[in-house]
Specification:
The complex is a heterodimer of chains A (411) and B (420).
Chain A: H1 2-17, H2 20-28, H3 31-44, H4 52-73, H5 77-118, H6 123-139, H7 143-153, H8 159-166, H9 171-179, H10 187-200, H11 203-215, H12 223-253, H13 262-273, H14 275-308, H15 322-340, H16 346-372, H17 375-378, H18 385-410
Chain B: E1 10-11, H1 12-17, E2 19-21, E3 27-36, E4 42-49, E5 54-58, E6 62-66, E7 73-77, E8 90-92, H2 93-97, E9 101-104, E10 109-112, E11 115-121, E12 124-131, H3 134-141, H4 144-151, E13 159-161, E14 165-167, H5 177-185, H6 189-197, H7 201-222, H8 225-234, H9 237-245, H10 249-258, H11 261-270, H12 273-284, E15 300-301, H13 307-317, E16 326-330, E17 336-341, H14 342-346, H15 354-357, E18 366-367, H16 372-382, E19 386-390, E20 396-401, H17 402-419
Parallel strand pairs in B: 2-7, 15-16, 18-19
Antiparallel strand pairs in B: 1-11, 2-3, 3-4, 3-8, 4-5, 6-7, 9-10, 9-14, 11-12, 12-13, 16-17, 19-20
Classes of the chains: A mainly alpha (411), B alpha+beta (420).
Chain lengths: 411, 420
């Protein structure tokens, strides 16, 4: 009986602490993610699924480090970088982050436009309306409340599971492809793998994760529950990715349909897997887009202000934190404006946003690894041998892959 | 010993950018600038990195020249004698100050140090102000000249004088809170609360410790609910109980309501029994009724008490101004019978009894289970400063002062939003 009681007690504790990892995981499956998974599935069938396993491991290792840094220092990653690396490094990281997030926000609005086009709503209506809604929500409304609503909405992402099952894949083939994938050593295949890693581990998420842990008011005593939270978040992220890939692979790839955008997948799914599957796919895309289009500009504006010592926060008035609101509004407006340019090269924009993410990621990871090994910052909670081996190893591999991606997209 | 040739000061950043010429002509980078703690800390030593090792050189043995055409600084040392310094009395300007968060006591907000201004005073270099401006950022990036060309004179530093800053470096002994916490006490608790809210959790605990229990209680009372919750959940249970005991019970009940129930219970157990019992009673009230808002600290007297007795009693007890907007008259069974406004008491003769001066008008009161909106209407309709709260037996159980009502009204739109 006693044992049972402690089990329930622990479960309750876990539920109270859970959140940051799962929210971060949900934000991770944004338009960039859904697009990359769909395209990968359509192009390479089940033979790209294996890559999600190392993705998941790397995601977990990185987020565990973020959570630990947050718990020990009680400071955001932007704060830590500024205080330890000085102005110059901070400046270049944040210029990079600003540009990357601007591109990412643009991609999110592309997702809004695309998913609404599936329902025959013009982008000239859907994008300004959703942009206005996002702005009002953040400036006039209650952002924390909205974030919670979004979290509930993000269970909508599980509709990709439904979409995948309705596509009736041959699960035996799926299993075999995971264990014995046909890896093709061609540049575009490698680029796709890099794209997968890059979209799963976006640089701005590191900042978001660490702030979320602090925001939640967690302490180091909560470490073991936080780890479970991070693990569950990573697992869900990868799970959704697997099902998106499976649903595209078992319909589009089999019928040799090539796609470039996530909305193409939704369109193409309709005749192949039924109207409902396509509609569900498009709805999932819309929710993910709005979710990330809200969080990305707010988060970016917040980190930039944090690093450079401007007042920031959605609980401040516009007069109190002018830089914060100017940045937020600017990112939102520019993102929307780019999408509304007639014949905007949306695919190019999303490719470039991934390239910038790719350049930034190793820099952020190196900063993180240096910080987490610093005794003055982490005390006795510096990285162990295993974490360091995995951390530096993956940073090296990601650097090489990112260099490859950057060079190949510039050529 | 000839120090700077020009009499203007230097920025820490440009000092750290320049190199130092050793006796053998070798150049090395300056790693750290140490200053002796004081009203305006004077530069005492620098750490340079030569080929082999770090050297700690005395500032008195260094000449500083500014090249007038390039504006670059040249440092030469004429003795490489290293010194054993009293580390505990020194501030590492780069490690402890540059890029860190400090508090601008004048503006009552948290800012980040972009640069430190060192001025020539007599023969020594003193840290006199910190630069928190964008100009400071641009200087640090090394692009001051081109930016200045474009912007012209618009690039002005914003300085905070040394005396008006407060640093929050827990490890640094020199400018840590304990030695200069008095400066914090010059701020109003509400301003301090704003500052503390802007800090990270570790820094928050450091400030709360430095304020002492009474100060911490005052500041905690002024904070936003979210920050209150965060601070208490990071505070050791015993300390939290000590601080909360010094706050009004109605505020304590509000705060504990928002904590995790197990944590709230731990704190309540640690608190003194009579206080925690009162808080527990208040926590029973739902958020929407007057009981959740009322303060249980009030003064009540008997109808046959004389004005003299009442005034003497108040001088002895030294109550908060909040508690004596009105005095309440109760009978032997603690039933509320009348109310005496403070002005009426002040203008009455010492020998008069409360029953003589109590208003004959209808007394405005509310029940602890009344909805808050009824209270708000009552207060605004009759312009009341405080309202007595009675329970179902007409016993006086608490009071509500106008501040609490205003706070509640400020809070209300948010709550409505949430409900909608």
């Amino acid at each position: 009986m006693g044992k049972r009681k402690t089990f329930w007690r622990q479960l309750l504790m876990l539920l109270a602490i859970i959140g940051p990892g799962i929210v971060t995981g949900s934000v991770d499956n944004d338009v960039g993610g859904i697009t990359t998974y769909s395209v990968a599935g359509a192009k390479y069938g089940f033979h790209m699924l294996w890559a999600l396993i190392p993705c998941g491991i790397v995601l977990f290792v990185v987020q565990e480090m973020n959570a630990r840094m947050g718990l020990v220092t009680q400071k955001g990653l932007a704060d830590l970088i500024r205080e330890n690396a000085g102005v110059k490094v901070t400046f270049f990281i944040f210029i990079g982050l600003l540009v990357a997030d601007l591109a990412n926000t643009t991609t999110e609005f592309a997702g809004v436009a695309g998913s609404m086009q599936v329902f025959n709503i013009s982008k000239y209506i859907s994008v300004p309306l959703s942009g206005l809604a996002v702005w009002l929500l953040v400036v006039k409304g209650n952002y924390k409340f909205a974030e919670r609503i979004f979290l509930i909405f993000s269970t909508f992402l599980l509709c990709y599971v439904v979409s995948a099952i309705m596509a009736k894949p041959d699960w035996a083939v799926v299993g075999r492809a995971v264990i014995h994938p046909e890896i093709v050593w061609k540049p575009d295949y490698i680029a796709m793998v890099v794209g997968l890693v890059g979209t799963t581990i976006a640089p701005w998420m590191q900042f978001y994760m660490q702030s979320a842990v602090i925001e939640k008011g967690l302490k180091f005593e909560d470490y073991k529950y936080t780890i479970i939270d991070v693990a569950v978040g990573c697992f869900l992220t990868i799970l959704v990715a697997v099902f998106i890939m499976v649903s595209c692979a078992s319909t589009l790839h089999v019928n040799h349909i090539q796609i470039n955008e996530a909305k193409d997948a939704a369109m193409a799914l309709r005749p192949l897997a039924g109207n409902l599957a396509g509609t569900i796919f498009a709805l999932g895309l819309f929710v993910a887009s709005i979710f990330s289009a809200t969080i990305l500009p707010v988060a970016t504006a917040f980190y930039v202000c944090e690093a450079f010592g401007f007042e920031a926060g959605i609980d401040k008035h516009m007069g109190e934190a002018p830089q914060f609101y100017a940045l937020f509004t600017g990112i939102l407006l520019i993102g929307m404006a780019i999408i509304l340019i007639p014949n905007a090269p949306l695919i190019q924009i999303s490719v470039w946003s991934q390239v910038i993410n790719g350049i930034l990621l190793p820099v952020v990871l190196v900063c993180m690894l240096l910080l987490i090994n610093k005794k003055e910052v982490m005390g006795k909670h510096v990285n162990g041998v295993v974490s360091n081996a995995v951390g530096w190893g993956m940073t090296a591999i990601l650097t090489i892959l990112s260099c490859y991606l950057v060079v190949s997209s510039c050529l | 010993m000839s120090h700077t040739t020009s009499h203007e000061g230097v920025f820490l950043s440009s000092l750290l950018e320049s190199s130092l010429e050793l006796l053998d002509g070798a150049r090395c980078r300056i790693q750290e600038v140490w200053a002796m703690d004081g009203e305006n800390p004077s530069v005492y030593a620098i750490t340079v990195k030569s080929k082999h090792a770090l050297k700690h050189l005395q500032w008195a043995n260094i000449d500083l020249e500014k090249n007038p055409s390039t504006g670059r600084m040249i440092l030469r040392c004429w003795s490489e004698e290293e010194i054993d310094w009293p580390q505990h009395a020194l501030i590492a300007l780069r490690r402890d100050l540059l890029d860190q968060q400090i508090v601008d006591l004048n503006g009552a907000k948290v800012v980040r140090v972009n640069d430190v201004y060192l001025a020539n005073v007599g023969t020594a270099l003193h840290a006199v102000a910190v630069d928190i401006s964008v100009a400071g950022l641009i200087r640090r990036l090394g692009i001051e000249r081109p930016v200045r060309k474009i912007l012209g004179g618009k690039l002005v530093p914003k300085f905070i004088p040394w005396g008006e800053i407060q640093s929050f470096i827990p490890d640094s002994v020199s400018i840590c809170l304990s030695s200069s916490a008095d400066r914090l006490h010059t701020l109003h608790p509400a301003e301090l609360a704003d500052i503390v809210e802007a800090l990270g959790n570790c820094q928050r605990q450091a400030v709360m410790d430095a304020l002492g229990k009474d100060g911490a209680a005052e500041v905690l009372e002024e904070m936003e609910p979210k920050a209150q919750k965060e601070i208490l959940s990071h505070m050791e249970v015993g300390k939290a109980a000590d601080v909360l005991e010094r706050m009004p019970s109605n505020d304590v009940a509000d705060i504990l309501d928002r904590l995790r129930p197990d944590k709230a219970e731990l704190i309540l157990v640690e608190m003194e029994k009579n206080i925690s019992d009162e808080v527990r009673d208040l926590m029973e009230y739902p958020d929407s009724v007057v009981g959740s808002l009322m303060s249980t600290a009030f003064r009540c007297f008997r109808a046959d008490d004389t004005v003299e007795h009442v005034l003497a009693e108040m001088r002895r007890q030294q109550p908060d101004p909040d508690e004596i907007y009105s005095l309440f008259v109760v009978d032997a069974q603690e039933h509320l019978t009348a109310m005496v406004p403070l002005p009426a008491l002040v203008i009455s003769a010492l020998g008069q009894k409360l029953s003589d001066i109590q208003g004959s008008n209808r007394m405005h009161k509310v029940m602890d289970t009344d909805p808050i909106i009824a209270l708000v209407e009552l207060v605004s309709k009759y312009s009341l400063l405080s309202v007595p709260v009675v329970d179902v037996d007409q016993k006086l159980v608490g009071t509500v002062v106008v501040d609490d009502v205003v706070y509640e009204m400020l809070k209300a739109p948010r709550r409505r939003w949430r409900a909608g």
